[in-house]
């Protein structure tokens, strides 16, 4: 008698070990979880972004509002709808590109034109572009040109990464570690997510402070922690889907080790990234205390931004083990509708 098929990676331990520094970061959550969840579903319904009732149920079980609540625990009530709208857009477009081969560069260009407010005359607008335009109008209220430029650049990186992930998937290629470190920070959508810390708090970090070497190091390390933890937690799902662009698989191939050892190696790498974040944070704090002429509100904004990056590292971990997006490998995507990525070509009526 043949036993039941075992799910790929079912025997892997994916939670961080007891010693891990991620466990030492404070865990917090906004009291507005229910409101955020309602906004998520509201955005998806308003613009008809989901495939069907199963996809709608999947979105609810993803607990996307909880992700926002855990990663922006002090989010202002006035910012709930705008921030939840961006996450709805990001998760839908991610699922669209998961199985839909598309005109990646064209979709990226169309999306960036939405952010630039530079629509071509007479250009058809997809439902996803219309939703993003609505979200963008809300996100940018009160935000300066420097922030809008930075966010747009990070969105460009996020959109460009889909093409390279699709190539790896199509050719069954596991990328090398050197290249993967660069691709993953972009493909995870974490850099624009970290930019939203300033939107959620209503405190914009002055341009010079944001480009301090220490702030940049913290930003990159926080981004790396989030995407590498995501790779670990989503490993079973990605093995089942035949995904090849995953940091655990990269480490396994690079070091010629098994998956359990690669998971351990990934968590060791994450621990190093947390340590580097904290070293840069200490340097930034010393710099802020010595910088002459620095306005008190700039110091507050920088510290709030630091707190936000810490919240993202821990909040992502807490959410990941509660979300059906990674814990249930049912193969259901939020959307596979290619018309969300580019307008369907018009033709003569029949």
UniProtKB/TrEMBL annotation:
SUPFAM superfamilies: Terpenoid synthases (SSF48576). It comes from the Bacteria. Its EC number is 4.2.3.-. The keyword Magnesium applies. Its cofactor is Mg(2+). Pfam families: Terpene_syn_C_2. Keywords: Lyase, Magnesium, Metal-binding. Belongs to the terpene synthase family. This is Terpene synthase. The lineage of its organism: Bacteria, Bacillati, Actinomycetota, Actinomycetes, Pseudonocardiales.
